[in-house]
Specification:
Length: about 100
């Protein structure tokens, strides 16, 4: 691992789990807002690929920023998200007052 990689790991470890949950929350809410997607719409889209989550359950998971990686990827898929950019992650952490770099 390079020195640059070690610095990134050290900064990332200084952030809390709550910060990472807030990152998930912000990213998903922003993507849903861009697309005008409500939680019931998200539930319906997930059901189309065989994933059954109620709108209330999704709202709770997104608002808490806590979900499994599989559900996160499924949500990204049904929202047609192309990627999560590293720079976006860095920017959100900076907004939270916990810069990663």
């Amino acid at each position: 691992m390079s020195t640059t990689d070690n610095k990134a790991v050290n900064h990332a470890s200084a952030s809390t789990s709550a910060d990472w949950r807030q990152l998930v929350q912000r990213i998903l809410k922003a993507e849903m807002s861009k697309r005008g997607t409500k939680y019931q719409d998200l539930s319906d889209r997930l059901a189309q690929i065989g994933i059954h989550q109620s709108a209330d359950n999704l709202r709770n998971k997104v608002n808490k920023g806590i979900m499994g990686a599989d559900l996160l990827l499924q949500i990204m898929y049904v929202l047609n998200m192309r990627r999560i950019e590293r720079d976006d992650i860095v920017d959100i952490f900076a907004d939270l007052g916990h810069p990663l770099e």
